[in-house]
Amino acid sequence: MKTPTVDIIVPVWNSPxxxxxxxxxxxEYSPAARLIIVDNGSSRETELMLEEFSxxxxxxxxxxKSERNVGMVPAINIGLARSDSDFAVILRPHMQVTRDxxxxxxxxxxxxxxxxxxxxxxxxDAPRLPAIAAxxxxxxxxxxxxxxxxxxxxLHMLIGGFDEGMDGGEWCLKDYVRRAWSRGYHTCATxxxxxxxxxxxVFGSDLRRQQQLHSSRTSYLExxxxxxxxxxxFGNKTDACSLADSIETILEGARQGHRFTLLLxxxxxxxxxxxxxxxxxxxxxxxxxxxxxxxxxLLRQFSALQTAVSDVIPVQGVDNITFPxxxxxxxxxxxxxxxxxxxxxxx
Length: 347
Prior knowledge:
Helix content: 25-40%
Distance between the termini: 32 Å
């Protein structure tokens, strides 16, 4: 098997000292990668540093200069447009990479249906992304960050760059994950790649950021619909092995951005873990009920979930069971129909 080629895209706007440290670490820990530096209208000081740094790279580097700050997402797209490698990695300059960070990302990204891969982040300012299940090194996810991200080359060739009309964060990324999903690609996170998160610069006024956030959310919802949070109870006599089709539906829903909390009796939870269903997707959470007083614990856990997520929707996981304490529970076939009605290939 040939070694995959990779481009590392670094969009830069000022912060010359942090940026140089980031670039130097990339060269140290990613010697085989090509570095694509996009100077997004930086100050003269930063521009000179980048020019000096790029001169030493030869064919290992590509320096692109924008005369003005076009925005982070357009700058990333400029780099993606020049990437022709098997994989493109986006890395913002306030990040610090570590040994084996790139090999861990690429190992995960070479899985057949993987299209987007996130590392895990450390540091006091790291984004609060869902954790990977204990005992697992890789899970599908819907939550990623522009701080560090790997894209399969064939994916961005197929669906293009990020939506420049959206924010440089949550909604733009959710949209890209959905576009990737619509073409059959999955998004995952891997603990085999770890990146240290530094102090992230903040751009623009609070008012401008809020306006863009609102506009991006509106655009996303018009395009893809709202993501729901479902709490599913399967009853105390349902055998986990009979739920394989239901779990496939739940996994497909998580890929569409829905979240699921599964309230399981002790034996069910044990079987779910044995079959690996506890590590399918970070949008699927398992909650194990008390062995001694399961019904009381069910009421307690669902009440706590309602407090945390006011619009959570209770679901009867199988026919002819009741969901204690949830008179408005809907049957599972309703969410299965909604999830199944959204077809791929519509990006």
